[in-house]
Structures are given as C-alpha cells and as structure tokens.
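Budget justification, computational time. The allocation requested in the original proposal was used primarily to generate structure tokens for proteins on the priority list. As evidence of use, we reproduce two of the resulting records. The first is shown immediately below.
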Amino acid sequence: MSKIYDYMPDIQGEEMLFLQKLTQEYSDEKLRKFSTIYRARRRDPMLILLLCLIGFLGFAGIHRFMMNQIGMGILYLLTAGLCLVGTIVDVVNYQSLAFNFNRQVAVEVHSMLASEH
C-alpha cells in the first residue's frame, strides 16, 4: 500500500487517489524521491485560482503561463481573457486545470524515476 499521504499530507481528493495508484509499487526511498520532485513541480490549486482572479484586474492569462500553456497565456493576455469569458470559465474550473497539470507532472516524474533503473 502506498504511503504517499505520509510524504504529502496537503494533497487531497482526486489528486491523492491518482498519486496512490501511480506510486503503489514504490519503495519508501523511491516514494520519498518522487514526492520531493513532484512537490517542487506541482501547482497549488489555490495559486491557480488566485492567478485567475488577477485576470479581472487586467492581467489575464498569468495562470496559463504558470501551467506552461504559453500560447493560451499570450492569447488571454492580448484579448483580456477572451473578453473575460475565458477568465470566468477558468475561475470555475480552476481545480480541474490544476489537477490536469499536476497529473501530467506526476506522470513525467514517474517516467523519469522509471528510466533511472
């Protein structure tokens, strides 16, 4: 049974379930290494929400830049968050945006650790 919760107690819900399934075969040493790398690269959903809300002040798209979606970030920046409609949609969906980014990061870290041995 994976002990990812011991290393990352602040992660909850769908993300926790995904990480448990991804790391269920890990040893303690590998799990500690995974959690250290993943924690450094993941994005906190609250940070994504905060950056989405900054879009209402005229700086739309910063959250897209944070999630390595450079093209969408530039589009949001130049169109005022697609006339605020895109910003409103992102505020509503901030958790799924963060989860999708974090899931991709977890898979990348998992692949990186698998290629080491």
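The second record produced under the same allocation is shown here.
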Amino acid sequence: MIIHESLIELNVTSKNKDEIIKTLARKAGELGRVSDVAGYMQAVLAREELFSTAIGYGIAIPHGKSSYVKEPFIAFAKSQEAFSWDSRTDQEVRLIFLIGVPEERANDLHLKILANISRGLMNDSYRERLVQATSAAGIVTIFGEMGL
C-alpha cells in the first residue's frame, strides 16, 4: 500500500514547512521507502521553491521525484492548527500530504497519485474525516476509501 501507518504524523505542533517535510521524509527513510533522506528533501524543497504546494481547503501536497525514492509513498501529517504554508501565498494548511515517487516512474505515477488525492479531497466528507481522525489506522482507512 502506498500509505503506511508509520508514515502518518498526527497532532503536528510545528508551523514550519521545512520541519514538517523533514519529519515525514525521515519516516519514509525509516520505513525504507527513501534511501537518502537529505537527497530526497533537496528534491522536495527545490519543488517548493518553484511555487507553493498549498492548494486550498487547508491542504498542502509537497512532492518530489527523486532517484532516492525506492518505493512510492504518501506520508501524511495533520497540524493541530491551520498555519501559513508559504509566505508567498495566503493559504493556510492543516493537512499535509508528502508524495515520494521514484524518478524513473515519475511521469505516470506522480500524476496518478496527485489526481487520486485531489479527487478524494474534493469531497468535504473525506477532508472533515481526516481532520477528525485520531488514529493512524483511521487515516489509512480513509486513504483506502479515497482509492489511494
């Protein structure tokens, strides 16, 4: 499965985008989905420099295509409070989805994952359930219902 309970961080208190991405990337490294966390982080932060991945509805979807990603994944974090994801926008976020895709499968898989997340999150019910969820198992169930 593309998401795993150990890739979920509930109750994030940091309001620092880089710290949250690093926390999630480290989890992916610990699970063996990323071979070099620093290298993967560099790809994600380079993407963030191009433009913000905050998409509205309290959601950010940072992502990186990298040769350091061994197996595709989605890591998820939920912040206690909404906060400004990027100083270049006024978008506040609370739900963060970090996507990792191996570079050689980047084009098709990356777009498929983004499309599935976006389609699922158009549904108010899924967003609200993600905000209300209190366990990693509950988050995994919701992701499954979203087709991820």
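A brief technical remark on that second record: The chain has a mean pLDDT of 92.
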